[in-house]
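Hey, sorry to bother you again with one of my protein questions. A protein chain has come my way and I'm curious about its shape. It would help a lot if you went through both lines with me. I owe you a coffee for this, so here goes:
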Amino acid sequence: MNTAHEGKTVPDATTAAIDVRGLQKAFGDNHVLRGIDLTVSRGSVFALLGSNGAGKTTTIRILATLEKPDAGSATVNGFDVVSGAERVRESISLTGQFAAVDEILTGRENLELIARLRHLPHPGRVAEAMLARFALTEAGGRATSTYSGGMRRRLDIAMSLIGDPAVIFLDEPTTGLDPEARQEVWRTVEQLARGGTTVLLTTQYLEEAERLADRIAILHRGAIIANGTLGELKALLPPAKPVYVEKQPTLEDIFLALVGEGAGEGDHR
């Protein structure tokens, strides 16, 4: 239910940030979504986990009003994705699988451009605040073509947050990133969660969902086959039997130990 506030229709704070019921989508004979249900609480991180072709990106595109569902319903921030598409777009931001930054512009100029497009006052101040928030102040005057993959992705997410959207969609945000850059993005998502932003994250990396998500749904061949907290999903399997083995470091542990997890923003690509 929506309530009136200062002449605008705003969502009731008690409603879910995202609510999906019986969502279906087909492209010709390819039934991508087969009636999925999911609910995302406000201020939480929800991971939609699945292999390539499972329907993750199609789900995001419907929730972001870029595609219309064939059947079922979905609301984002209290607004229907079909009848209230304009309201949904005012409430969200979408970060796709590849960073959508203008590599000719500097980081500061990219941020100022988005602030102007959102008709915000003082775009320069907005840009400076976002550069500081995402530890990019020193790199703000450089062309983004000189940024590392992790820096470019952080800038992309910073651009997505201009205007304080209630919900942000991150569609496989660490695809193609090296382990160090992936850690940077993970820290950024954790920062968003601490700030109260609702995040719907799609990924095919199990450790990403395990580290970041309050709840995880597993999407397989267009259907949700499991949905719950990490603890609830673990409870679906038989109790673990204690096995004593010598823990060996993973290759990622070795890589991060050698190069340093907290590499600075001035690193080269």
In short: The first strand starts at residue 2 and ends at 5. The domain at 2-232+249-259 is CATH 3.40.50.300 (Rossmann fold). The longest helix spans residues 179-194. The chain has a mean pLDDT of 86.
